Amino acid sequence: QVQLVESGGGLVQPGGSLRLSCAASGIVFSVYRMGWYRQAPGKQRELVATITSGGSTDYADSVKDRFTISRDNAKNTVYLQMNSLNPGDTAVYYCNAKKITLRPTPDYWGQGTQVTVSS
């Protein structure tokens, strides 16, 4: 059974920082592409950042130079370091795991962690 458990969300003031973590189990973590997505109230879920099994990263334009995604394969954990947060970053943040192959594969999701940026 695949489980993705996010942690690290909370309330932070504009300009502040948070570090999200996502601990994975039930998958061979090292071969999965891991990602962070977010969903704000009334909006669709959007990609924030991804990191491949080889360590290549990709970011949404809105978070480039502010957020950093990383992974620790020994701990089966992916992180999202978020700096210079602004109210527009307020959302529920979801961890995603997907094995990239030539054939369709399922997406696995965590339960989400709330990030609120407010003074």
Q: What would your notes on this structure say?
A:
The protein is mainly beta. It is built from no helices and eleven strands. The strands form two sheets. Strands 2, 4, 5, 6, 9, 10 and 11 form a seven-stranded mixed sheet that branches. The chain has a four-stranded antiparallel sheet with strand order 1-3-8-7, with no helix packed on it.
Structural class: mainly beta
Beta strand count: 11
Order of helices and strands: EEEEEEEEEEE
**What general outline do the C-alpha atoms trace?**
globular
Distance between the termini: 40 Å
Q: Measured on Cα atoms, how large is the radius of gyration?
A: 14 Å
Overall mean pLDDT: 97
Count every helix, treating DSSP H or I runs of 4 or more residues as helices.
0
Pick out the low-confidence regions. none
Question: Helix content range of the residues, please?
Answer: under 10%
Strand content: over 45%
Instruction: Report the sheet with the most strands, covering strand number, pairing sense and barrel closure.
Output: 7 strands, mixed
What structural keywords apply?
mainly beta; 50% strand; 11 strands; 4-stranded antiparallel beta sheet; 119 residues
Topology:
Layout lengths: L2 E5 L2 E3 L5 E8 L7 E7 L6 E6 L5 E3 L7 E6 L4 E6 L8 E8 L8 E3 L3 E5 L2
In a few lines, what is going on in this structure?
The protein has 119 residues and is mostly beta strands. The protein has no helices and 11 strands. Strands 2, 4, 5, 6, 9, 10 and 11 form a 7-stranded mixed sheet that branches. A 4-stranded antiparallel sheet has the order 1-3-8-7, with no helix packed on it.
